[in-house]
Amino acid sequence: MEIIDLINRYGDFFYGIVAAWTFLEGETIVIFSGIAAREGMVDLVTLVACAWAGSFLGDQLYFALGRHAGARMLRRYPRWQPGVDKALGLLEKYSTAFILSFRFIYGIRNFSSFAMGMSTLSWRRFAFLNFIAAGIWAVCFAGAGYLAGMALQHVVGEAAGTLSLVLLGVLVLFTAGAVLVNRWKKRRADAAALVADTVKATTAN
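Request: output the structure for the sequence above.
Response:
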């Protein structure tokens, strides 16, 4: 479903969708919603606040998972180990700077909060810095979308509104397709790992 449809269908409840989406996923919906904010379809400040809250709470959950079940989950999903090791290495080397910037580091950001939960980093310190980092992230990506919409308006004038909405729809469809493909690949990898574990267990018996 396109973001424009979500906005039209759910009205103010769309902000809740943004919060839930950023709790689970990345910046895509924030950028596109920033473009919609430039067109007056959503409020930019409320958008930033909801993206901030969703991102903060999501990473707090991943941190808690790493703290309480990290070793057990790594035994179950050993392919996570390289990402976790890299995130822990960056945490050890850069400390505060890494906590503030891990959302912008592609390739390991999905493992970072989980990995930090497995470290000696205190919950309070992570929560404090993560709150600041989530705000920076939300402002950057919502602002990027807003500025993209503004730049488009300067280039094409009165047609900017229609054109930006068309581009928004195209980008949403493209991104949704990419997400589905990535999830399909992940499921295939999980299935292959499960088969390998089953064969290993059968052979051992």
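The radius of gyration is 20 Å.
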